[in-house]
Design brief:
The chain is of the alpha/beta class. It has helices spanning 54-70, 97-104, 122-126, 131-138, 175-178, 194-209, 234-246; strands spanning 41-46, 76-79, 116-118, 146-147, 153-157, 165-169, 215-219, 251-254, 260-263, 271-275, 292-295, 299-305, 309-316, 321-328, 333-335. The strands form two sheets. An eight-stranded mixed β-sheet has the order 4-3-2-1-12-13-14-15, covered by helices on one side. A seven-stranded mixed β-sheet has the order 5-6-7-8-10-9-11, with no helix packed on it. The protein is globular. The two termini are 21 Å apart. The protein binds fe (ii) ion. Fe (ii) ion binds next to helix 3.
Length: 336
C-alpha cells in the first residue's frame, strides 16, 4: 500500500515541494544529487532485518545490486535494531551460528566492507535473554565490521578535521518503552535499566551541547512518530523530542515498524525517517496520516551525506526507488 496521498488530519507539512518525476530520475547520475563529487559519502540503512529468512536475503541482494549499479561501496551500514529475531538454537553467544547466518553471510565483507553501526531493538533484548550483551561483546572481536561500542555512542562521518555529519546512536529500549512483563508468559522483559536510561539521557544532552558537524543525525530503534502498526512512542516524544528541536537534529532514523516512512511534522526541525523493511514481515500502515511518505514494503534506505545536504532515498527489495528527499543544514527539506 502506498500511503503517500491523503493529507494528515492531525498534522500538516511544514513545506512540501513535490516533483512527480522523481521516479524517473536516474539514481546513478551523481549530478542530480548536488555536491556528491565533493567528498560525499554513501550509506545504507536497514531495520528489523534479523530473521535469516528469504525477505532479508532479497533486501540484501537489492542493496548490493543498488551499489553495483551506482558504482559505489557504501561507507557504512546503519543497522537500526531487531538485528536478531527468535532464540538461537545453539544458544546466543559470540560463537553462535546466527552471526554467520544472519549477519556475516547476508551482508558479506566483499559487498559491504565498511563499518556496520548497530543499535539495539526490542527483539535484541527479548528474544535471547542477555542478547544485548552478546551483541556488545561481538563488537570487540578483532577486525569485525560489527560496531556497537556501547548501548549509546557517537561517531562523525567525513574527514576528522572537517566532518560532514555527527551521528548519535541511542538505545530506545527505555524501561517505559520496552520493559514490563512478557504478555504471554508474564516474565520480566529486558530493557535499559532506569539507571542506564538516566546515564544515556545525561550523555545525550552533553553530546548535543558539544561541538558537532554541520549535520546531526540521531539513530535508534523505536520511532518517535510513526504511521505504522506500533504508532507513536509517547515516552520518546516526551524525552527526546524537545532536545531534537532545541539542538536542531536534522534527521531521526529508526525502524520497529516494518515499513518505510518519511514524516514531517508541523513546526519540527527534524525529519523522521523510518526504515524497517529489512526482512521481517511487513505490516499494514495506519492510513490516517501519511505525510509525506509511507509504504509497507520490504526495502532499505540510501543516505548520501554531502557538505550542503543529506539525500535520503527509500528503495524496495528490487532496488526500485520509491521516495527521495533532500534535507539541508537550515532544516528545510525538499521532495526530490
Ligand atoms: Fe522492534
Amino acid at each position: 500500500m502506498n500511503a503517500s496521498a491523503p493529507l494528515s488530519r492531525r498534522r500538516a507539512l511544514k513545506t512540501l515541494f513535490c516533483s512527480s518525476a522523481f521516479l524517473s530520475l536516474n539514481l546513478g547520475s551523481r549530478s542530480i544529487l548536488g555536491a556528491a563529487e565533493g567528498g560525499a559519502l554513501d550509506l545504507l540503512m536497514i531495520g528489523d532485518f534479523g530473521t535469516t529468512g528469504d525477505a532479508q536475503k532479497r533486501v540484501a541482494a537489492a542493496m548490493n545490486a543498488f551499489c553495483q549499479g551506482q558504482g559505489i561501496k557504501p561507507e557504512s551500514l546503519l543497522l537500526l535494531g531487531d538485528n536478531f529475531y527468535s532464540a538461537a538454537k545453539d544458544g546466543f553467544s559470540t560463537e553462535s551460528i546466527r552471526w554467520k547466518n544472519t549477519f556475516e553471510d547476508i551482508y558479506p565483507t566483499a559487498d559491504f566492507p565498511g563499518p556496520c553501526w548497530a543499535v539495539l531493538g526490542n527483539h535484541d533484548y527479548h528474544d535471547n535473554p542477555g542478547g544485548e550483551k552478546v551483541q556488545l561483546e561481538y563488537a570487540k572481536k578483532p577486525g569485525t565490521r560489527w560496531k556497537m561500542p556501547a548501548k549509546w555512542y557517537r561517531f562523525d562521518l567525513g574527514p576528522a578535521s572537517l566532518p560532514l555529519a555527527t551521528v548519535i546512536a541511542l538505545d530506545s529500549n527505555l524501561p517505559k518503552v520496552s520493559g514490563g512483563k512478557d504478555k504471554i508468559f508474564g516474565k520480566p522483559r529486558g530493557s535499559l535499566s532506569e539507571s542506564e536510561a538516566a546515564q544515556q539521557h545525561e550523555w545525550l544532552v552533553a553530546e548535543l551541547q558539544s561541538k558537532r558537524a554541520p549535520f546531526t543525525i540521531v539513530m535508534a530503534h523505536h520511532p518517535l512518530y510513526s504511521n505504522g502498526s506500533h504508532g507513536d512512542t509517547k515516552a520518546l516524544i516526551a524525552q527526546w523530542g524537545p532536545l531534537f528541536q532545541e539542538h536542531r537534529v536534522h534527521a531521526y532514523l529508526c525502524g520497529h515498524d516494518h515499513d518505510l516512512q518519511h514524516l514531517e511534522l508541523e513546526g519540527l526541525f527534524t525529519s523522521f525517517v523510518l526504515s524497517g523493511g529489512g526482512g521481517a514481515s511487513t505490516r499494514k500502515l495506519d492510513s490516517d496520516r501519511k505525510m509525506p511518505y509511507g509504504d509497507d514494503v520490504h526495502g532499505f534506505t540510501h543516505l548520501r551525506v554531502a557538505r550542503e545536504e543529506l539525500v535520503f532515498t527509500h528503495l524496495d527489495a528490487s532496488a526500485k526507488p520509491l521516495h527521495r528527499f533532500i534535507k539541508r543544514t537550515d532544516g528545510s527539506f525538499e521532495i526530490a
